[in-house]
Amino acid sequence: MSTLFTATSYGAISVKNRFVMAPMSRNRATFEGLPTPIMATYYGQRAGAGMIVSEGIQPDIQGQGFMNSPGLHSEAQVEAWRAVTAEVKRQGGKMVAQLMHCGRIGHPSLYPSAHQPLAPSAIKAAGQTFTPSGMADFPVPKAMTDEDIHAAIQGFATAAANAIRAGFDGVEIHAGNGFLLHQFMASNTNCREDNYGGSMENRLRFTLEVVDAVVKEIGADRTGIRLSPANPYNDIVEEDTEALYSALVDALPELAFVHIMEANVRAITEILKTKLTSPLILNPHEHAADGPVGGEIADKVLDAALCSGVAFGALFIANPDLVGRIRMNGPLNDLDPNTLYGGDHKGYTDYPFWQPVKEAV
C-alpha cells in the first residue's frame, strides 16, 4: 500500500493518512470575518484528508488583507468556527487554523476597519488587488512601530488560543507567500535600521518571536509554520534564500510540523530537511511544469523520505473525496477557476463525489 494511506502524527496531532489539504483562500466568510454554514459543509466534505489546514485567518483586525476572509480575534468568530471544526470532527478529520497576517498586502476598502496596511517598512507592493470598485494599486503601508510589532505578536498568540477554544487541533503560522512574516524576512521589503531589520538575524527576529509567543500559548506540539523559500509571490525578493532559511530552521524549536510550499527549489528543500527536528509537510513543486500535486508526485516525495505528509491544493477544491479517488485510481473533476474567490455554493460545495461502479454479480 502507498505510504500516502498510512497513519502518522504531527506533534500531538495524530492523523489517519498523509494527505494534507493545503490552505486556500476562498472568501466565503461574512464581511465581518465570520465563518458561514457553507464553510462547515465545504471543509466537512474534505475531511477524508488526514489533516486540513484552513484558509488564511487574520489573527487581528490589522492582519486582514482580503474581503470576506475569516478572523479569529472576536468571540463571535470563535463561536462561528466551532460549527466548522465540529463538522470536520464529525466526518473523522483533523483541522488546524492557518494564522495569516497580510501586512502590506491589502487595501482599506476591503475590510470593515478600512485601516492602512502595516509592514516592516513603508514600501508598497508592486501590482494591484481587486476591490469593490475594481482593480486598485496596493497602497503605501505604514511602517510598524515597536508598539505595532508587539501588538501583532500578541495578536498571533491570542488567535492561537482562540483557535484551540474554537475546536481546532492546532495552528499553522503563515510565514510565506509575501505576507507579513515573509515581509520581515525579505531584504526588499524590510529596510528597518532597528533590531528587526538589517542583518539576517534581525530580519528573522519577528518570525521567531511570533513562534515563541504561540508556542507559549498552546504548546509546540500543536504549532506549525508554513514557509515558501524563494517564492517571489506578492513582490518578494529574498536574495539570501539558502542562508536565510537554514538560519531560521536552526533557530526553530521542535514543532508539530514545518510546512514548505516548494517554489521549484528542490535543492533547498533537501537542505532544510536535513536540518529539521520537526515533521515536514511538503507542497511539492520540483518543476514549474509539474502542475497540481497528485498521487504520483506525492508517492515520489514520500518514497524518497523527503517528508511526512503531502499538501494537495487545487485537486482538493474540485474533488472533495480526493483520497478515495486516488486510492481507487478514479477520475478527477475539473476545477472551475471562475468560482475560486467569493460567491455561494457554486464551485464550492457542489463538486460531485465519485462512487465507483460496482460490477454486476
General description of the model:
By secondary structure, the protein is α/β, with parallel strands linked by helices. It has a single domain, classed as Aldolase class I (TIM Barrel), CATH 3.20.20.70. Helices cover 31% and strands 16% of the residues. The strands form 4 sheets. It has an 8-stranded parallel barrel, surrounded by 4 helices. Strands 1-2 form a two-stranded antiparallel sheet. Helix 1 packs parallel to helix 2, helix 5 runs parallel beside helix 6 and helix 6 packs parallel to helix 7. The longest helix has 20 residues. It is globular and about 60 Å long. The protein starts with 7 loop residues before the first strand and ends in a 34-residue tail after the last helix.
Short structural summary:
This protein is of the alpha/beta class. It is 31% helix and 16% strand.
- End-to-end span in angstroms? 27 Å
Beta-strand percentage range: 15-25%
Oligomer: single chain
The CATH topology is TIM Barrel
The low-pLDDT segments are none
**Arithmetic mean of pLDDT:** 96
Q: Going across the major beta sheet, what is the strand order?
A: 3-4-5-10-11-12-13-14
The CATH superfamily is identified as Aldolase class I
Radius of gyration: 19 Å
How many distinct domains?
A: 1
* Helix-strand sequence: EEEHEHEEEEEHEHHEHEHEHEHH
> How helix-rich are the residues, as a percent range?
25-40%
Approximate shape: globular
Number of helices: 10
Total number of β-strand segments? 14
Protein name: Alkene reductase
Organism: Veronia pacifica
Family: Belongs to the NADH:flavin oxidoreductase/NADH oxidase family.
GO cellular component, one term: cytosol
